[in-house]
Amino acid sequence: MKKNLRYVIKVGTNSLQIKGAFKKIAKNLNEFYLRGGKPILVSSGAVAMGMKLCKLKIRPKDTKELQDLSAEGTRVLSNVWANEFAKYGIGVWYIQPTWQNFLRKEDLNNIKTRIHSAENKKKITIWNLNDALNSEELSIHKNGFYDNDPLAVKLAIASGSSRIVFITDKGSMGSGGGNSKSKSIKKALKNNIEVKAGPLKDLRIML
User: What pLDDT was estimated at residue 110?
Assistant: First the structure.
């Protein structure tokens, strides 16, 4: 039986602050792709990018301000990813769902279709919760789907992925933190999805 090499790779905001992070991730995912891998990337970092553009050193606490920063940073974040993958001739589709999309059958089918369509066209989908419209990640919501860790699990289940790779480095600029990751890992394992978690420097060996 052919091994299932569809993996979800989730990178946190802190990891993206490391010098050369975007370049390293694109390079490693390209190598994985050349081995027959089908990577699905979940990227945090829109708010942090917005803070950088607005020259803010302290993360605001106001939810509406955080949503504005996400809207500000999303365009640049998506362009950075597109430019890095373009070096390897790989196109990207940047998709921003809200948690409601996973509750509606039609939307869930569309998510599955986009993933498979991108793979057929030799492109990588990059996912990030739509913070500008969805406040749950920014002001923790009781339904438990409030950041990109549970998003990674939802995508893995929907796409039939065999592994989730969590790229995580010390610190957190988001609201989910370690508790979110712990719950997400438990849910993944419950759904028979293999989990690897570690710092950016170990990405290659986790793929």
Answer: 96
pLDDT value of position 56: 94
Domain boundaries, the chain: 6-206
Record the tokens describing residue 192, joined without a space.
Answer: 């028979």
pLDDT of 141 reads 44
Q: Could you tell me which residues are beta bridge partners of residue 145?
A: none
* CATH classification number, 6-206, choose in 3.40.1160.10, 3.40.50.720, 3.40.50.2300, 1.10.10.350: 3.40.1160.10
Nearest residue to 43 via CA among 3, 84, 101: 84
Question: pTM score, two decimals?
Answer: 0.90
How much is the average pLDDT of 84-104?
A: 93
